[in-house]
Design a protein that fits this description.
The complex is a heterodimer of chains A (757) and B (151). Chain A is α+β, with helices and mostly antiparallel strands and 757 residues long. Chain A is built from 19 helices and 28 strands. In chain A, 28% of the residues lie in helices and 23% in strands. By secondary structure, chain B is an alpha+beta fold. Chain B has 2 domains: 2-74, Roll (Ubiquitin-like (UB roll)); 83-150, [2Fe-2S]-binding domain (DNA polymerase, domain 1, Orthogonal Bundle), CATH 1.10.150. Chain B has 6 helices and 5 strands. In chain B, helix 3 (83-90) crosses helix 6. Classes of the chains: A alpha+beta (757), B alpha+beta (151).
Amino acid sequence: MKARASLGGRGLHRRRLVQGAAGIAVSFALTPLAAQVMAQTATLTPLPGSMNTYRRLQGWLQVGADGLVTIFSGKVELGQGIATALIQIVADELDVPMDRVRLVSGDTARSPNEGVTAGSLSIEQSGVALRHAAAEARALLIAAARERLGNRLPAEAILGTADGFVTAPGGERMAYGELASSARLERDITTVPRPKPVAARTLIGRPVERIDIPGKVTGAAMYVQDIRLPGMLHGRVVRPPSPRARLISLDESSARALPGVVSIVRDGSFIAVAAEREEQAIAAATALRSSARWDEKATLPAADATLFSGMKALRSEDTVVSRKTDGAALARATRQVQAEYTRAFQIHASIGPSCAVAQWEAGKLTVWSHVQGPFQQRADLAMTFGLPAADVRVIHRDGAGCYGHNGADDVGLDAALLARTTGARPVRLQWSREDEFQWEPCGSAMVIGMRAALDADGQVVDWGHDVWSHTHSMRPGDPDGDNLLASWHLATPRRESPARNLPQPAGGSDRNAIPLYDFANQTVTNHLIPEMPVRVSALRTLGAYANVFALESFMDELALVAGADPVAFRLRHMKDPRARAVIEKVVAMAGWKPGAAPTTSGGISRGYGLAFAKYKNLAVYTAVIAQVSVERATGVVKVPRAWCAADAGMIINPDGFANQMEGGMIQSASWTLLEAAPYDRTRMLARAWSDYPILRFSDVPRIQIELIDRPEEPPKGVGEGTQGPMAAAIGNAFAHATGVRLRHLPLTAARVKAALA
Amino acid sequence: MNLDVNGQQRSIDAAPQTPLLNVLRHDLGLNGAKYGCGEGQCGTCTVLVNGAAIRSCVTPIGSLGNARITTLEGLGNLERPHTLQKAFITEQAAQCGYCISGMIMTASALLAKTRNPDDAAIRAALDGNLCRCGTHNRIVRAVQRAAKEMA
């Protein structure tokens, strides 16, 4: 259990919930050693964000003699702009230009372990920690300047900071670089540092250009795919043809004879090849694939609608995650309504297939990787190879867009297994498009049963929400299993960790299943299905996408029964003023008119739909209105326009915020209209983009976004705010346009055509 | 074998059936064109051959002869970015950015033929290029901005 001890060294590990000092929810589980550390820190002053568990100032921030500021984060750039936001936060708090701040992120040898970059928590955990680290450093630099000025400075004089200098009233300036050595920045933080007041902020809340975009639009080496090391080889894997297939035989001879082939690995059902050139590795992999014989098993579930009844029939672990009772209200019930919603298995489908570079030197492994959790990948790599975690270093580099747990972790092990046979020569291994579609974990299919009772006034007096789902997190870093794909295929196979549900208040399958509306009676039940015939793990928003689709679709269904406008119906059940504010704002933006009739002309019906969610019930408030058009003859649904109003407390970078919201809406429109992973009883069937179409330019909605800034409120995560509301807004707009309610995601043309027939 | 890449004659030691993408990335160390699907379906490997946008992942180098090949790096660099590259920075038209080289090269071929393409024409030209982050509308705005500045 070396990996367990190593994880404990940094104290934290996913699974359980620790309520951070600033009321910030952190999904981690305590390992035994970590529990000890926590017991010791229990007597210490709680500190903000990730600083609470990682208290060395110089572990967050260092100031060089040249005045350059280096900051360290466990959170990584996934295309969401976090690197820029973290630098922006520190530059603002420390009064130093952004181009004087360097970020080291996701390097297990240098960064704090802040868990996985997931759940829209990077600003809340790392951003908040770095802001306070910068505040502490600023105070220490001012103190050092005061000491240096000594008697020359009147006791009542106030020192300021600007542009990387401490400034004194007489106009004297001392550069941070000159003060750094005497400022005693190497220390534990013991009291909560005091950041600047809102009025003194210079960068926070302003649109700042992303630091990585110039390099990315001019071809600089920005991605893990661009790493070129001396002597580097190129690798490919030959995966089994189906999830539970086992290798019977393999003839390596023809592949071995091909030009450039350096090494072929066969270990159980794991096959990989390294060659001097990438196309040589691809040719050798093709030869190996054609000579491999496999034993395949029909282990996949039904791909039609019986999937969902089948899921409900499987053994489940049932947990009531929310219950409210009020007998008097219940007695007023006059009408019962129920409906069942479903969601297909869906794929991350990043444009760039997963890639890693691995190198072994003197028994130690280094992996360059675009994972969300470098420390978690390290833990599973160490587990697989039976190494102490200290002998494995994972260094994060940008990859193609990451929308959850895709192949990024797995490809690191593939490259490491191959590089183990190539001496000190590093191996770069990028999956094929087919590898990615076939093997990356899917977002779980889900069944959601909704029921409600209304009283004579059309008020909801009882509410029920039941979720049946596989888990939404099978990430590496679980001490009870190895969650890297190739480890299951080795001659001595490793076992994946048991399926667990991320607990409330963030939730996993049941994320956003607990309504924010004010209902007198409610029961929300999660039915976790431990069996996983289709490989599943985290896809952006976990269960929230489908839960919000169901909850917010059902609110419209109830409004219809109650004879109420969907907006008015929501507002009369909603007390939270920030929720009301985003709903009212988006209504104004889109010019929503209660009772407005849908239109039909030229065989195309048009309508509008609204939906709301507060992501995880903890993060950004989001209200969306979608306009849809439905071509009745073909069943093709389009979303020409959409509007979004959002409130995430203190805004760090409004342009980055808007970019995330718009991107989420477009991705959600694609999921909602088009996407279901194809499979038969044996094989996953998506091999190319033609098998798994996504939304293209001509069909992307035109989007308008307005943000509500609350500079005195803590900043909240924004990257997953829109997916659920967008899906439900589309569903509600479809129902408005056609008078027909669709409850099954995705709303494909075939399904729509059948429903309208 | 010789190839004309970004205005320079480059000598390549690779088999004629080698995809242009592999030569650009691994022999010439150019990062712009990316591997996305290897089947010409996603557009992230797009480069210009004699001014036309082509999929370098399915183009064997043996088919190119003396053709002029232009990659993202041939348009401009950090110090002197091309109008399109500047427009993508100004519009902050990227999230992960992996598809952006293909977007810029496809847009470059469009703008060489069509001086002031309207919104629909830009979208139609880019329909074969996939973006997964949902940056489409910013990309369209960046192309519109560049078109205006180049007109």
